[in-house]
């Protein structure tokens, strides 16, 4: 048996609605889709030869699985036992990927984890998340996702982070200290709500077409945009079994633009609460992150809205996948002992 090391392993985990990422102090980084599934019956078990499946594998085999997405609308689903179990499986899986296991190289007793969750979840699900981590890690710090992003970018003073994920859009104004409730906002207008809207619009326009939310999401991730860009979006879907081309340009734009008004309203509201002499600096340091931040034209649209209040700059991030987990890791490495919560098993 391998000797467990006594070194502390620090990890940052971004627990997302659609994707969850982990960055560890041993240099390992992984991202998985936030799906957990269990074989529905004996046949499925025989085919899959596994008791549980996580991530992309779970989505690919979903016809054989009781599939769960443990976070929805930015909240951990506490209703069913299966969802509780799913969060735990997901967290254990992420930790196993970086080498933490009950009998593995790194003992869970030596793990310190910073977990980034949507700001709304931070308010309502903290105790639940703590329980999910019991016996999996030794010390825990739960932070909001946009704060972890700010930490990764070292954008800690007079900045605003807008993290548009799948379940939620999270806003945070950084004032050079741990953010408080008043510095943060969460909206449920985000990637998932765009998918729902887009599916509905396409079904209305092409009632005969056979389209699923999984197809719609793929199209969105390829072609999303807001504003006028003169481009045409043609996709193919089966109509009564026959692959048929459909023009979804107007629907794509309309669906993506549903997040624009609430995002602008929240951004301007948070800005108006910043002390007057710092508002200009914050306006010039707006950072767009998360998968939804990749919507083409969104940065420009938000900048246009800032013109009403004196102008500003919105930067978007090209590769947001590990920003949250890297920020969590940086925080884990910096945090003094007193900032950690000890979890007794
Ligand atoms: N190019 C793109 N254009 C628009 N949306 C995209 C693009 N790429 C990814 N997305 C969407 O971004 C969302 C995932 O982003 P992200 O990984 O930041 O979310 P998450 O962290 O899992 O969710 P949350 O932060 O709400 O918990 C999904 O809805 C995905 O479809
Ligand atoms: Mg996220």
Describe the structure.
- The protein starts with 8 loop residues before the first strand and ends with a strand.
- The protein is of the alpha+beta class.
- Strands 3-2-1-9-10-18 form a six-stranded mixed β-sheet.
- The N terminus is likely disordered.
- It contains 13 helices and 18 strands.
- Among the domains are: 161 residues, Nucleotidyltransferase, domain 5, CATH 3.30.420.40; 67 residues, Nucleotidyltransferase, domain 5 (2-Layer Sandwich).
- The radius of gyration is 21 Å and the shape is flat.
- The structure holds adenosine-5'-triphosphate (ATP) and magnesium ion.
- Magnesium ion binds next to loops.
Q: What's this, in brief?
A:
The chain has 13 helices and 18 strands. The protein has helices at residues 42-48, 56-60, 81-97, 119-124, 126-133, 145-153, 191-205, 213-223, 249-257, 260-272, 279-283, 298-307, 323-334, and strands spanning 9-14, 19-24, 29-33, 36-39, 53-54, 65-68, 71-72, 75-76, 111-117, 139-144, 157-164, 169-175, 184-187, 234-239, 242-247, 286-289, 314-316, 341-342.
Poorly predicted regions are 1-5
CATH architecture label of the domain at 9-149 and 323-342: 2-Layer Sandwich
Shape: flat
The mean pLDDT is: 90
Placed side by side, the strands forming the largest sheet appear as 3-2-1-9-10-18
How many strands appear in the DSSP assignment?
18
| Proportion of helical residues | 25-40%
CATH superfamily of the domain at 9-149 and 323-342: ATPase, nucleotide binding domain
Beta-strand portion reads: 15-25%
User: Which CATH C-level class of the domain at 9-149 and 323-342 is it?
Assistant: Alpha Beta
């Amino acid at each position: 048996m391998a000797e467990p090391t006594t070194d502390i392993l620090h990890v940052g985990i971004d627990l997302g609605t659609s994707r969850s990422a982990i960055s560890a102090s041993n240099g390992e980084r992984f991202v998985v889709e936030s799906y957990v599934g269990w074989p529905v019956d004996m046949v499925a078990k025989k085919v899959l030869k596994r008791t549980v499946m996580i991530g992309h594998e779970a989505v690919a085999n979903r016809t054989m699985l009781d599939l769960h997405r443990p976070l929805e609308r930015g909240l951990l689903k506490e209703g069913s036992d299966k969802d509780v179990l799913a969060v735990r499986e997901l967290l254990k899986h992420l930790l196993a990927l970086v080498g933490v296991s009950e009998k593995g190289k790194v003992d869970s007793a030596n793990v310190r984890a910073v977990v980034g969750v949507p700001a709304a979840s931070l308010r309502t699900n903290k105790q639940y998340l703590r329980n999910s981590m019991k016996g999996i890690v030794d010390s825990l710090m739960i932070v909001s996702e946009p704060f972890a992003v700010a930490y990764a970018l070292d954008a800690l003073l007079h900045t605003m982070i807008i993290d548009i994920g799948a379940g939620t859009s999270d806003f945070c104004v950084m004032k050079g200290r741990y953010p408080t409730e008043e510095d943060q906002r969460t909206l449920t207008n985000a990637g998932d709500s765009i998918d729902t809207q887009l599916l509905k619009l396409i079904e209305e326009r092409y009632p005969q077409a056979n389209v699923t939310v999984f197809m719609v999401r793929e199209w969105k991730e390829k072609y999303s945009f807001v504003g006028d860009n003169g481009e045409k979006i043609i996709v193919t879907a089966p109509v009564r079994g026959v692959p048929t081309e459909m023009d979804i340009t107007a629907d794509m734009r309309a669906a993506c633009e549903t997040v624009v008004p609430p995002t602008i309203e929240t951004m301007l509201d948070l800005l108006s609460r910043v002390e007057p002499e710092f508002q200009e600096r914050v306006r010039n340091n707006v950072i767009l992150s998360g998968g939804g931040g990749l919507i083409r034209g969104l940065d420009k649209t938000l900048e246009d809205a800032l013109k009403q209040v004196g102008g500003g700059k919105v930067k978007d991030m090209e590769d947001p996948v590990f920003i949250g987990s890297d920020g969590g890791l940086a925080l884990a490495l910096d945090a003094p002992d007193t900032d950690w919560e000890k979890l007794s098993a």
